[in-house]
Fold this protein.
Amino acid sequence: YPITPASDILHELSKHKNFGVRTFQAEDEIAGIGAALGAAFGGALGVTTTSGPGVALKSETIGLAVSLELPLLIVDIQRGGPSTGLPTKTEQADLLQAMYGRNGEAPVPIVAPRTPADCFDAAIDAARIALTYRTPVFLLSDGYLANGSEPWRIPDVEELPDLRVPFQTTTNHVLADGTEVFWPFKRDPQTLARPWAVPGTPGLEHRIGGIEKQDGTGNISYDPANHDFMVRTRQAKIDGIQVPDLDVDDPDGARTLVLGWGST
């Protein structure tokens, strides 16, 4: 859904149908992220673009994506707030909203580019995290970066990371009686990501939704112990995401450490 200063992303992506990119301008922010999450359920990387006021409207569906454990990229081009705020002015105002702006325990990783050129690499990293760990990811840019420019070396496509993810096509669990079944929440022990099965895959019929699911089976569960386990598991999955080493300028004798993020 168009919103300043994020609309140019939709305009640009709509030019790249030759790469299999499908763009859709929804009637509002809620429909936009709903369509993106539906695309993820169907086996694609869903992407929705917005700014601060739009994130507020999308928060319910972001929480649903956390529960569904599907890859979703939320691109927030920040501007001044609160409310309508300053549509044409920049402000790094949405970090806490991205971290905590959902009901319950709904952890989401956040990636923030630091320069206009870095937006390319940051978007790839955000997509890698979303696909590998089956989670919504925030990409926090801002008006300075969206309207800025700098020299940028066009990358060699062959050097870009392979983001293809194998879909689940076979059963993954054997019951005590020997029956082979599909468990939608039987996790990868290394990433804690659940299997991604495209709807309509024979033998892999399953349900997902916002109501808490039982570990492994994916059945609806109101059991307190299971809920506690699922909450802790979803958090552990985000905590286990590999973060690259940071560049630290450490002059001898310095007594103050200054931390910055994003365009600052």
